[in-house]
Design the sequence.
């Protein structure tokens, strides 16, 4: 695979944001050695606002910064640098990180779906549901508890204990939800329906909030449309244009008059890779992979454990005693399409975050991961549960997926 980016933990990675935010609001020492972050920005503020724009990765950000008048002006005024996503470059890992301060290796919430041995099934943690399902809270009737699946640590409670009030602005579709309610403990929640509404309410709340205060706003529509139409589509072009219009008119320009001693951070969790459902390789329906099932683990009922991750980072639950044989079997058949990597060396090399690892992560992660090359996808097919219908995806280590912007603007 070409143009691979390793996560830059400790030197300019999304995972460095929680410590950066804490240091700007409390007496916690400022982090050092962060790529592109000047020392003069690392001071105490009355207010820190983080705008997390899902899938507004470096490539998309740069594409618009080259030709959009407002973004051109903003990048000249602001400090802009390229950081990296965590690995996997997936929303589940990043929203968990920003609310807990934990990397994937620490939180155990590392992908959209993965096997959890306490449930003995693949789960979708953000939906509190089973893998391959798109309904919420399917795990509630069987007695699964939030504390069983999500980390106990809370960035909002840490800040609360340091005298900082925190506020979270998210779409009403998942605010409240089982996942949100757990990871956002300690924060005041502000559900919104439209981004214009969110920016207005955010500004009004900043005006009256006691200082110091931290505000987090999450916007997911660029990501959603990139999945449906592809990151280079005209639909995504229109959505980004609309986002930038509101960012300028409803937030940045009014904020120049309203904000004081405030730091605004704008970033993304990942970018997106253009893909096509027509070229997806399905391991269980492609004749080249006949015999694959002998390598795969089964649950206590004897059913095959479903796929983890995504078609861009397919975590395959193979039997421990057959890992090497399974890797060779898959690598031979996926040559030129995907890399088949052992997870243990990736753990040791710090791809999932610094050591030590949490027991939850070790129990959930698989021994093999399939990383498709640019614009390729590899997945599992099961009618009504698993297929590949998207034209944009993320999760892998390519530059398009891993490179993210960090834009920092001071309001004095």
Sequence:
């Amino acid at each position: 695979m070409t143009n691979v980016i390793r996560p830059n933990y400790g030197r300019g990675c999304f995972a460095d944001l929680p410590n950066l935010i804490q240091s700007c609001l409390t007496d916690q020492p400022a982090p050092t050695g962060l790529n592109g972050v000047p020392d003069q920005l690392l001071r105490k503020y009355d207010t820190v606002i983080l705008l997390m724009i899902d899938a507004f990765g470096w490539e998309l950000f740069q594409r618009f910064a080259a030709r959009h008048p407002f973004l051109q002006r903003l990048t000249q005024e602001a400090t802009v640098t390229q950081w990296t996503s965590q690995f996997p470059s997936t929303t589940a890992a990043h929203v968990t990180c920003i609310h807990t301060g934990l990397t994937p290796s620490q939180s155990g919430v590392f992908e959209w779906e993965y096997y959890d041995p306490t449930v003995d099934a693949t789960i979708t943690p953000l939906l509190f549901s089973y893998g391959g399902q798109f309904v919420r809270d399917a795990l509630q009737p069987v007695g699964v508890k939030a504390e069983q699946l999500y980390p106990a640590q809370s960035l909002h409670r840490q800040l609360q204990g340091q005298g900082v009030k925190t506020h979270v602005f998210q779409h009403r579709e998942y605010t409240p939800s089982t996942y949100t309610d757990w990871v956002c403990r300690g924060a005041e929640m502000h559900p919104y329906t439209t981004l214009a509404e969110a920016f207005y309410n955010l500004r009004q709340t900043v005006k009256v909030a006691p200082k110091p205060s931290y505000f987090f706003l999450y916007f997911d529509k660029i990501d959603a449309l990139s999945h449906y139409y592809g990151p280079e589509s005209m639909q995504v072009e229109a959505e980004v244009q609309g986002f930038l219009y509101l960012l300028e008119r409803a937030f940045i320009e009014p904020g120049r008059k309203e904000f004081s001693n405030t730091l605004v951070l704008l970033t993304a969790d990942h970018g997106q890779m253009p893909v096509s459902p027509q070229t997806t390789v399905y391991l269980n329906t492609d004749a080249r992979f006949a015999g694959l099932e002998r390598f795969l683990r089964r649950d206590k009922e004897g059913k095959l454990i479903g796929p983890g991750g995504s078609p861009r980072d397919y975590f395959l639950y193979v039997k421990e005693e057959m890992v090497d044989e399974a890797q060779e079997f898959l690598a031979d058949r996926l040559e030129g399409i995907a890399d088949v990597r052992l997870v243990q060396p990736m753990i040791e090399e710090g791809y999932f975050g610094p050591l030590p690892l949490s027991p939850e992560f070790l129990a959930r992660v698989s021994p093999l991961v399939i990383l498709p090359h640019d614009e390729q996808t590899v997945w599992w097919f099961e009618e009504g549960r698993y297929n590949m219908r998207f034209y944009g995806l993320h999760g892998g280590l390519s530059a398009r997926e891993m490179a993210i912007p960090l834009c920092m603007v001071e309001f004095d």
Notes: The first strand starts at residue 47 and ends at 53.
